[in-house]
């Protein structure tokens, strides 16, 4: 109940434009008093969700398999026509056998608001049944047969025998085909994604904790990407990858509440994992513990809402897309996308241990490839360890950094390669409506070849289109931009997930002093004793966008390579274990010399002095020194409650000198987490270890090996064929985890290992327990729950007061146009136009765009070809002065090499807040220009 009213008001307050969200909020409010099932029905009427038959969902319970939803292909190639026609009357199924059955199957599926039926049509009589439906069908058949047989029996014993033989033959046939279908498609797989870009102005960016790093535009959009894998008649798991710095406990809690309201116990804390890619270029303020929201002036409701909404919608989409499919696994080394940024700490690990590895960072990328039985490849998720710090601590454009870029590239690559194949019959209504609204496909330039020449006529044509001037726009018409028109089309989802990136930097050229250009000091990463002068250099140095592109491109190319050559099919059970632990006081048994054991403890969270020094990716991260104290009202609010650590705490953390005793700071609410989730997800021979922080390279290796040893010990079914990956920054965030030896060196990662020197040992011990429970098929009890601090959150970021333009100027008018005078632009050159604009926080334009490049098609129709999710187009927003109600939007388009020659213009969308009244949407275009 609480979450419904909360989400409703949240949506109202933030997404004025979002008609879907508004109507959902309205529905939620009216539904709040109704049962979960009636809520589900109401929700399915929301325009943002694919339509399905409006019948109440079957109640689902956790003890059941991901049920009601499992379709099973039953193909009866030879005698099927006979069989179905025989079946039809007796079983009460009439009509054309397969087709009628398919309708029935789709009802079952849509009962859980699943995909609208996926009927195979072809030469074979083929249909698909829900598994429960199939059982029902067989039961009905047996019942029918017994009735028939018993009536036969009255007359003729021989007839009965014949019928009986026939029955067994038929049942054998059905079951055999069931099994064939099952072995052909061991799983149901579903993919989904949704925009989580968030506020592109005024909000501090998450990661570097640089109070001056405030969002002011978008390079490309952030996404939540989800997959669901379900075992027919078995369990299911959800994995979500966020283009965000990390997962957040309060986000996870609220997403789980929404999933519970929507699906009952189907998706819960045990089988849902939410992981962050660790971009340092997304809006902050969505975490609940104080230390992570100091620089964002506390909690930012808008950041939080867009992430919770986006995760929910990506999971709903994945759920609705569940279809029979296979999963393949592959792995390979990517050598040039990460270096160790704390090599002196790594060197403190035992030489014998280090000698087992060729590199001081993990180079392996693991990928899973999802192949729909009918649509072919529908997505891939991979795990690879490298920090999301290709964009620097002074960047202000929202970006997914190198992993977000890689995902963008791979999804575009898939689109160009025709993945997924468009279903010939799935959801034809949606496809029809898609064609009605979308006009031309997204990247026109890639699809319609045009002569690479431009004549004087086109230049003349371009010069005849002046800037349009700003005009008001109905909010709802903005929602139909490039990507939102593709909502119901099967799409390829590719995620680049984070792993044990704790000490891995993407700035692979090494660290240099910005004054002398000499390498930094090896042990302390300083220049003449000062950490703030030492920076890591990316491969595009000094251009951070280029570094991001290159590191993203390397991951993308490796992923495509592994994707194309993936041949090991994932087979086996789906399973999971999850528990919450109190990391502030865990007893840990550690080995000391000669095999003897000692019991030690973790400590309440605390951060060391080196934490304030930051890293070579962002010196001075979380720098609480005077610069940040000054002028930060949130800090002022809480600084008086800073705590001096007691003797026990100091000893527990030694040799870490405590700068911030965050685990014992509780005012105005908890500064750091104590209760943390750990989770194992198993999909056949793939085992994903979900950890709530940034493991260093060696810490990750130790954990993976320890779990692998447990899982392959004894008569384990894993039988050595097992692949263990570590999913970092998952479900919540608790900073770093180093090895005991690295901790002694107290570099940034050691100083940020919150629970003392035995933090890693605690993880290993507890993960071993989870793994043991997994193979023993035992449940894992949990005695803890993380706190829900949403109601206590304090946010001091002021809202938008109002927007204005100079007298005589409208929102959307051009203030600085593309150069006129028959100007043309070559590929690779940059075109700019600046518009009178308004604060992007008025409407996040989620799943929409603030910027478009339009191309003249024919003589008088403009089609969108690039939007603000494209690498080539940047949306930059600015105010002339800090408190000014006036603002500008500059659209900056670097003409891609593969852009078609022709006539183009730039278009800006925005939403302004008047002094009185509601948000008003506007648009305007630049003058046209020719591209040759
Ligand atoms: Zn990090």
UniProtKB/TrEMBL annotation:
Its EC number is 3.5.1.23. The active site is at 505 (nucleophile). It is found in: Endoplasmic reticulum; Golgi apparatus; Secreted. The keyword rRNA-binding does not apply. Binds 1 zinc ion per subunit. Its cofactor is Zn(2+). One of its GO terms (biological process) is long-chain fatty acid biosynthetic process. It comes from the Eukaryota. One of its GO terms (cellular component) is membrane. Keywords: Endoplasmic reticulum, Glycoprotein, Golgi apparatus, Hydrolase, Lipid metabolism, Metal-binding, Secreted, Signal, Sphingolipid metabolism, Zinc. Residues 1-60 are annotated as: Disordered. One of its GO terms (molecular function) is N-acylsphingosine amidohydrolase activity. It is an enzyme of class 3 (hydrolase). Belongs to the neutral ceramidase family. This is Neutral ceramidase. It comes from Zizania palustris (Northern wild rice).
